[in-house]
Design a protein that fits this description.
Mean pLDDT: 74
Radius of gyration: 13 Å
Structural class: alpha/beta
Length: 113
Amino acid sequence: MQFVADENVSHRVVERLRADGHDVMLVAEMRSGMSDTDVLKLAETETCILVTEDQDFGELIFRQHLSVLGVVLLSRDSRAAQRIEVPDHVGDSCFGCPSVGQPAESCLELDQL
């Protein structure tokens, strides 16, 4: 899977995804201060799933009808166990339709980070 990690995402999360073989572009490594709209455009252009802690992306996607393959919204509560479900593939029906995934056996456990 390919991900774009917003600059507010912990480096430990990015390192874990990379260690598990996922391609992760970290906004902070590319261009710090990139606008949310530009981050979404990057994720769309590169056909990546966006990983963020920023709830503002919901408004951009739904109210302004901006497109993205998917969004993983991480909890800002450091005490909360975080799980990222990384499916084997993303079907065409998922394009532009961010959804809340259910915990699954294939989830990447981030609660130890």
